[in-house]
Amino acid sequence: MMDIRANKKPLHIIADGYGLSPGVDAAIRALLEQRKVRGTSCMTVFADWRDEAELLMPVIDACGGEVGLHLTLTSFMPLSGVKPMCSLRRRISQWLLGGVDKGKLQRELDAQLNAFVDAVGRVPDYIDGYQHVHFLPVVRDWLKARRELLISPRGKSPWLRGEPQQGLALGLPQRGKIAVVERMANGFNAEMREAGYEVRGPLVGFYEKRNPQRFRETLQFVLRNAPDDAVMMCRPGIVDPVLVARERRVATREVEFAELMRQ
């Protein structure tokens, strides 16, 4: 049985996407209660976010876990607009070819941060991004501009999820995916540390989502080989109609939940 407080190695197993659906949220709360994960990053763009936050915070207080903000700039309805956000492919094209509406996107980031603080009552313990969007230049600029607002009453700003490393992958498909994320993340760690943030990493936990059973092998590989202060992302959940409506590939959710619970 794995208790994250008992791990000698400071591996941060973080559940992404609290707020995505009631089934995802229930699974993450169960993992926190059993201390199978160290924290969860929250998506604040959905109408039921505040209700789900009310269920989360007593669990966080009881287990001493961390609660983060999962910045969201793709796929869903924004808080600050009336049209759905574009795909990650389109975001990357905007970044590479120009055409980013910096003011519009940063207003959306402000709205998501405000929704987090309004529901949780404090700034996030850490910040990362859905589909790794926190690595994009427009988000880096926002993080630098908002750092003073993000400092807690104890004088500490949120830590950030850092760059991945291809060397911490099980095979070629994973290395290819990590290479794309590495391109997005290039220079992020140094830039954010210069801005005054703590950056934790490397980011680990990549595996082939079309083969959910690879998660177990990936988890064991990470537990054996990840360096100190590595951050492992995971996406546990219980599949429900809300999740099916919001996410295209859901089979990995229950596999990850079951595997984390049995550790």
TrEMBL record:
Keywords: Carbohydrate metabolism, Hydrolase, Magnesium, Metal-binding. One of its GO terms (molecular function) is chitin disaccharide deacetylase activity. It holds the Pfam family YdjC. The lineage of its organism: Bacteria, Pseudomonadati, Pseudomonadota, Alphaproteobacteria, Hyphomicrobiales. Its cofactor is Mg(2+). Its EC number is 3.5.1.105. This is Glycoside hydrolase/deacetylase ChbG (UPF0249 family). The keyword Secreted does not apply. InterPro entries: Glyco_hydro/deAcase_b/a-brl (IPR011330), YdjC-like (IPR006879).
